[in-house]
Amino acid sequence: MATRYDKSVYVFHGTVTAAAVRLSLHLGPVRRIFVASPVAYAEAVASDTRRPVKEDQLTPHSLAFYMDVVASGTVLGANPTDSPDRVTAMLGSDFAENSLDDHSMWRDYGMVEFFWIRETPDHPWEGHHFTLQVHRLSYGGGSIVSRAIRDRYGRFDRHLRFDKLERLLGKQGVPLEDAPDVNAPTFTRHWQPASQVSVMVFRAHEEWRQRRRGDDRIGDVYTIQSSVSAEGVARDRERFGRQDSRELSGRSSSEP
Q: In the chain, where are the structural domains located?
């Protein structure tokens, strides 16, 4: 159940959860969504997605998973354009399904969310993008990650450091470009042109906000999102100018 307070703010009750829904191409401005109660994440998953973990597949804190997503633009082989049934076949049947209206829908798999749109209720769902809500790990821990992903990649740490991810991707020939973002300087955005995946990095705490245990650390990856086109990045550069993330992240090394 959702309570709508104005055209951009919704409060959900019950077992629905989400961060921000970015369907700007079809739904207009970003909707802000606040969770009134948390989702209890179970750990069931379809048996055909289970694969044993091999030692040579693991990197510290499952960096291999994030590297695979950024390099390939997929999650366990699921593309952002795949149908809901196809994504469920890859990630399992444990998800919370949410919708703002008849034209948009997303499924929450704990850390991973997939989003779909359709022209009318008579049309099939079309995949729009996926988002990795990495920041949820800081307070929820690795158990929120779906079993299908953990079976493949192993355990997940509460924090993903951007400098380490960027360095390892660079060694694999997967560079990240700075991309301007409206949320700077609190966040910086970094973009992989081939996979069209962007990485949002937390850079500064709000001065008014009291720090709490489980908060994100400066320099942590906040989200990883697919389907960020070259045209979209070009428009942002024209609108905001070319932002140098090194200048905006001057405090990023102040926290471990």
A: 2-37+58-249
